[in-house]
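Hi there, hope your week has been kind to you so far. It would help a lot if you went through both lines with me. No rush at all, and the record is pasted right below:

***
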Amino acid sequence: MSSPPGRFFGRFGNQFYSAPVWKKPAFRGFLWAMCSNTSFVAIMILNKVFRQEFPIMWLVWGRCLFALLLVIPFLRWSNLKVLWGVQALRGGVVAGAMVCSYTAYRHLPSHFAALIGASSALFTVVLARIFLKEPVDSKRMIALAIGYCGVLILLSDAIHTSWSHYVVWALAGNALAATTAILSKWLTLRSIHPQSSMVYGIVVPLMAFSVILYLDPQWHQIKLGAYQWQLLAVLGGIGACIQYSLLRAYQVVKASFVAPLEYARLCLMIPAGYVFLGEIPTLWSYVGGTVIVGISICFVRWETAES
């Protein structure tokens, strides 16, 4: 016989999880996307905090290694359907996006890097229209244009800085991330389980980074201690969460819906950069961020109303 508090929380839990909003694909997709965004912000903050511990190549290699070790116990081998060409292509694109993103976020102010990262939504929506034939109506295109104006507001504030050339790395990472999103959605449309795409998205980059580390002698001189290995294990676990959450989001909603939600990273990155790195955004950062977040909310409301 359960206690009164147990019965109360049991009824509350049943009512909470049986609420109609949980049945809306747009809401579930929003939650998965926000989980991915939160994990992304955490791993990029750690990337800057511990940048003296190891170089980028060791970081991305360790993330893939420990992400794979974390995922293996939960694998269902029946889910690993094979589309070798597309999976290999997607894995290669993931590897490129990881290197570009880690390099950009390590050298750019965190809030600025997050803002540049928000521009990947523009790439994703356009590619989704071209390759996935997803409809994009005029109001969404106008909203994307307004959101990109928010990006430009902050870009204009960084033209003459010493780190402005790292913006190229960020933009390249955005283009590759958008390509990854399109390939991920293409696979889910063919009933490929998210776990399958996740595994190949880890294994292919891991193989690529292992070859680079083996062939380049400069990496052989770096010796990692127990502390560094522990950090890599943490980053690997967070990296696995990023991929799995994002793939689940693409499974339940359109790619053009998930893409603009990346704007929400700004809301998370700005306070995280201030708390952990002491970075203080300018007034224009708040102006551009407000525009971007407002557009994200519009996208969520539109998609939820139409689901």
